[in-house]
């Protein structure tokens, strides 16, 4: 009896030793990376291999060839949208249950490999787990995606929580065919009706409040200029929430539900600050600020749908007393409702250096923060040619106040500010390296409408360091 009991204890000890050690508590990584509650944050702990020949995904403990942690069939890109081969470090973008802006379907547990290529679950028609695509599930193991790597939901879930940014992912198109392994992995997949969706007790990753830093910020369906399109153009201060966070791109949702990708350098957010909420008074439709508590009274101001008013009192049923855009009066409670809303970052007014313009012999203009411009014969000398001395640019977009946010001309360079967004446009001014620049409006061409040293004009983004 004692021998049998001892044997049982030894078996239990062995079983416990084989269970992977988990951290005492999960961790959310700091910085511009999606706020996932990771079970493992060590990017060197696992390596992912994606076999394009056999349509197999394998996760190894340590390097490729180490102990296999999980292995399953996957679906990769079709002939028109092939999944590119190579060795990558997983990116920062993750999403728990997201919508494909370009394709109109959902998937669970997105993990970015590189740019617009993700490892994620098979497709869903909505956020209901019962809407998992039968076709996508049954055709797992065939190359028919738009380039992403589709896997079973529980496989995507494991990778989502255990493979943080920086984890090595090798995509290989030179593996030998292995029909026996494919057959074995295919047989291990339950029928569609028998598959149990993975349970998840973790809170969804936080959606981070953000605002656009500039005017004309494009919100796109993806990262490709050739295949993706602009779905919205954002104005300075426009609010959004970030569903995926990365140092280059973020996936954003606007107040009206529009989804798309925006360049991180064009937005302002604090990814590590606690997400705060506050009570606001918001118009559910267009309404007015009245001079008295009577809809026949004089209309002092118009509040557009979505406009936020400052309310100080509720003097009578059906009426608020407050203000909108500095206009004080009475507002109807029917159309201005009290809500709980996110607290968004605020843009500070731009602080622009005073103009540094000094006359030079012959009537020229010396441009630069230290007065060290170049001048010959009454004009501004640019690379041997003489430009007109008028510092007024051609017609440009009407910008809002703008924000410098630490943007400067690259040190060791001298940037040309031009009258329009073209290298053939007239030069308005030469701006020395290190000079603060206020970006008023951005453009996908790379030419930004800017203000610096008292001048306004267009400067190419390659000349700037954005803070």
Topology:
Layout: H1 2-18, E1 46-51, E2 56-61, E3 68-73, E4 86-89, E5 94-99, E6 106-114, E7 117-121, E8 123-124, H2 134-138, E9 149-151, H3 153-162, E10 168-172, H4 179-187, E11 208-212, E12 217-220, E13 230-234, E14 239-244, E15 249-254, E16 259-263, E17 267-269, E18 277-283, E19 287-290, E20 299-303, E21 308-316, E22 319-324, E23 327-332, E24 336-342, E25 357-360, E26 364-367, E27 375-376, E28 379-382, E29 385-387, E30 408-409, E31 414-418, E32 427-432, E33 438-441, E34 447-452, E35 455-460, E36 464-465
Parallel strand pairs: 1-10, 7-9
Antiparallel strand pairs: 1-2, 2-3, 4-10, 5-6, 6-7, 6-8, 11-14, 11-17, 12-13, 14-15, 15-16, 18-21, 18-24, 19-20, 21-22, 22-23, 25-26, 27-28, 28-29, 30-36, 31-32, 33-34, 34-35
Q: How would you state the average pLDDT, rounded? A: 85
Tell me the helix content.
Answer: under 10%
Spatially, the strands of the biggest sheet line up as 3-2-1-10-4
Name of the CATH homologous superfamily of the largest domain: L,D-transpeptidase catalytic domain-like
CATH architecture name of the largest domain? Beta Barrel
Structural class: mainly beta
């Amino acid at each position: 009896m004692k021998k049998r009991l001892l044997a049982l204890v030894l078996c239990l000890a062995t079983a416990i030793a084989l269970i992977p050690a988990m951290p005492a508590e999960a961790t959310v990584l700091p910085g511009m990376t999606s706020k996932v509650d990771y079970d493992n944050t060590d990017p060197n702990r696992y390596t992912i291999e994606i076999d394009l020949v056999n349509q197999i995904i394998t996760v190894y403990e340590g390097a490729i060839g180490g102990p296999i942690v999980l292995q399953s069939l996957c679906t990769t890109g079709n002939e028109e949208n092939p999944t590119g081969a190579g060795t990558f470090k997983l990116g920062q973008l993750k999403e728990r249950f997201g919508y494909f802006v370009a394709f109109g379907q959902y998937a669970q547990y997105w993990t970015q490999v590189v740019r617009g290529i993700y490892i994620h679950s098979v497709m869903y028609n909505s956020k209901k787990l019962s809407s998992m695509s039968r076709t996508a599930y049954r055709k797992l193991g065939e190359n028919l995606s738009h380039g992403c790597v589709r896997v079973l939901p529980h496989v995507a879930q494991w990778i989502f929580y255990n493979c943080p940014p920086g984890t090595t992912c090798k995509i290989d198109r030179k593996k030998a065919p292995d029909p026996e392994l494919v057959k074995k992995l295919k047989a291990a997949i339950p029928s569609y009706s028998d598959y149990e969706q993975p349970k998840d007790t973790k809170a969804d990753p936080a959606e981070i409040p953000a605002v656009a830093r500039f005017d004309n910020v494009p919100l796109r369906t993806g990262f490709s200029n050739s295949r993706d399109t602009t779905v919205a153009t954002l104005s300075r201060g426009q609010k959004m929430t970030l569903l995926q966070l990365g140092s280059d791109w973020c996936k954003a949702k606007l107040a009206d539900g529009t989804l798309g990708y925006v360049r991180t350098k064009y937005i302002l957010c604090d990814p590590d600050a606690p997400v705060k909420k506050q009570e606001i008074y918001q118009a559910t439709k267009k309404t007015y600020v009245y001079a008295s508590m009577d809809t026949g009274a004089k209309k002092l101001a118009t509040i557009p749908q979505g406009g936020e008013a400052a309310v100080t009192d509720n003097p009578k049923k059906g009426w608020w007393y407050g203000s909108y855009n500095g206009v004080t009066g009475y507002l109807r409670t029917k159309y201005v409702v009290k809500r709980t809303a996110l607290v968004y970052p605020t843009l500070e007014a731009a602080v622009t250096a005073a103009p540094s313009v000094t006359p030079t012999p012959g009537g020229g203009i010396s441009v630069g923060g230290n007065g060290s411009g170049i001048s010959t014969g009454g004009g501004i000398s640019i690379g041997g040619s003489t430009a007109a001395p008028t510092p007024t640019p051609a017609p440009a977009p009407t910008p809002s106040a703008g924000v410098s946010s630490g943007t400067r001309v690259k040190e060791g360079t001298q940037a040309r500010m031009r009258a329009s967004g073209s290298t053939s446009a007239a030069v308005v001014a030469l701006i020395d390296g290190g000079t603060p620049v206020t970006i008023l409006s951005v453009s996908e061409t790379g030419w930004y409408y800017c203000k610096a040293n008292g001048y306004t004009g267009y400067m190419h983004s390659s000349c700037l360091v954005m803070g």
